[in-house]
Design brief:
The protein is of the alpha+beta class. 56% of the residues lie in helices and 15% in strands.
């Protein structure tokens, strides 16, 4: 009887040990599945789970996971295709609109040179010219945006004297700055500062920031150029916030100023599609830099950070 009990106990222990080993193997397989899922996610679902399993139920579950991964890959591919087609459509439409808008703008200018126009006609003509200019700027922004977002090629950067570029930009836009009754405040270092960038893209960034300032600046704005302790070139455009400009709710949110199609005051009928600052962000990233905005002592500041060119290394 005692021997029988020991035999039963041995059988139970053997069975329990077998179950424990089986559970440990299942847990090991589950951990491997989790690791494979992480690798698959890092590869944008372009791979399947490939592990050796001992349990048929786990094999079935893994098969279903792989089928789901194939489905997600298909959805991702379709979404990317749709996005490419949409960007191409926007680019084509913007390109097709540029020519007739240029013709309309030229004809309006010729009409403005005609003599004998009544005051009312001149007023209507001025409004048409303003709206045509606005529409052309929006179309140009859409076209440029579609090109920037679809162009995945790396930009060939070169040596740029950012101080000289900044001074030339302000001088070239002096007339429009004065026309808007603004006084620029320049804070530039005495020495030249060089960076690795693209002068044409820099000028476009400055133009978009200036356009934003022309819309919202009160009496003056400031431009500062400096090199940070981390050897980043920092370009700062700042203007005083108008009284009554909200910073929350439906007002101004500095955390979203560089978002695509963000418009600062939804309650105000501001013109434009809100792409100017987003384009500034894209252009900075194209040159290996970054942008951010902040409020400091009622000043709205736009910061551009780009890589300085260390001439001592050459």
């Amino acid at each position: 009887m005692v021997l029988l009990n020991w035999i039963i106990i041995a059988i139970l222990l053997t069975f329990a040990l077998g179950e424990l080993i089986y559970i440990l193997l299942i847990k090991g397989s589950l951990r491997e599945i989790a690791r494979e899922m992480a690798r698959t996610r890092e590869s944008s679902y372009d791979r399947q789970i490939q592990i050796r399993l001992l349990d048929p139920d786990l094999e079935k579950a893994t098969t279903e996971i792989n089928r789901n991964l194939d489905f997600q890959k298909s959805l991702k591919s379709e979404a990317e295709k749709s996005e490419r087609e949409m960007k191409q459509s926007v680019s084509d439409i913007a390109h097709d609109l540029r020519t007739p808008l240029t013709v309309v703008k030229g004809n309006l200018q010729m009409l403005g040179n005609e003599e004998g126009l009544s005051p009312d006609s001149k007023s209507y003509l001025r409004i048409c010219q303003e709206k045509t200019d606005l529409l052309k700027d929006m179309v140009d922004n859409f076209f440029e945006l579609s090109v920037l977002e679809s162009d995945s090629q790396a930009l060939e950067l070169s040596k740029v004297d950012v101080k000289e570029t900044l001074i030339r930009f302000i001088l070239d836009h002096e007339t429009v700055i004065r026309q808007n009754n603004l006084e620029p405040e320049l804070n530039l270092p005495e020495e030249a500062i060089f960076l690795m960038g693209d002068e044409r893209l820099l000028l476009r960034m400055f133009s978009n920031l200036l356009n934003n300032i022309l819309k919202y600046a009160k009496d003056s704005f400031s431009v500062e150029l400096k090199v940070n302790p981390d050897e980043k070139v920092e370009i700062l455009f700042a203007n005083e916030l108008c009284q009554g400009r909200n910073l929350g709710g439906d007002g101004l949110s500095v955390d979203h100023l560089f978002d695509r199609a963000y418009r600062g005051d939804t309650a105000r009928q501001t013109s434009g599609a809100g792409l100017g600052l987003y384009i500034v962000k894209l252009l900075a990233e194209k040159q290996g830099g970054s942008v951010y905005a902040q409020i400091s002592e009622n000043q709205l500041e736009f910061h551009i950070l780009l890589n300085r060119l260390d001439l001592s290394e050459k």
